[in-house]
Amino acid sequence: MPSNLSQTRDTRQTIHLPTEREPSSIPRGDVNGNWEYPSPQQMYNAMLRKGYDDTPEDAVESMVAVHNFLNEGAWAEIIDWERRFSRGLGYGWEACRRGEEGFQENADRIANLSDIAAPKLLRFQGRPNEMTPKARMLEFMGRMYPAKFG
What is the pLDDT of residue 82? Predict the structure, then answer.
């Protein structure tokens, strides 16, 4: 997250929101250290800047907690993917071809990452106006079969 996000209380704000940021376990790719998650005040200011002015202020702290939890879970998935496929699809296929149990049995032999650098995140980038492949497929299916997917 950018470190220059405003921590200033908005004039429309009726309750105090914390300005402390929580450290992340996600390593930065541009400098040493880990990313920091936005404070509730920064999250609220960003939502106002993007036009979401109907958000209850007392819900922002919970929203930040969920945001941080989901980011940590997504990063764990990335680490797992890198563990399986960082040496190429052939290694990943060999490690995963017998399912999760097969991966666990072969993980030490095939997917040892001691000689591969751990992944780092260069930037957070949202793409709210881009549809995912799954969303495009569901939209297509909704047009073809509106009773079932519409």
Answer: 85
* Residue among 39, 7, 2 at smallest CA distance from 125: 2
**Distance from chain centroid for Cα 56:** 23
| Cα gap 93→77, rounded to integer Å | 17
Q: How many CA atoms lie within 13 A of 91 on its CB side?
A: 15
Closest CA to 25 of 37, 13, 16, 17: 37
* Residue 91, phi-psi category: left (phi > 0), alpha (psi -120 to 50), beta (remainder): alpha
Inter-axis angle of helices 89-96 and 60-85, nearest 10:
100
Per-residue confidence (pLDDT) for residue 112, from 0 to 100? 57
Which tokens belong to 43? 């999250």
Contact between 105 and 96 (Cβ < 8 Å)? no
Average pLDDT for runs of 10 along the chain of length 150: 74 91 94 94 92 92 96 93 83 79 67 72 87 93 91
* Residue environment code for 130-140, b if the CB has 16+ CB neighbours within 10 A, otherwise e: eeeeeeeeeee
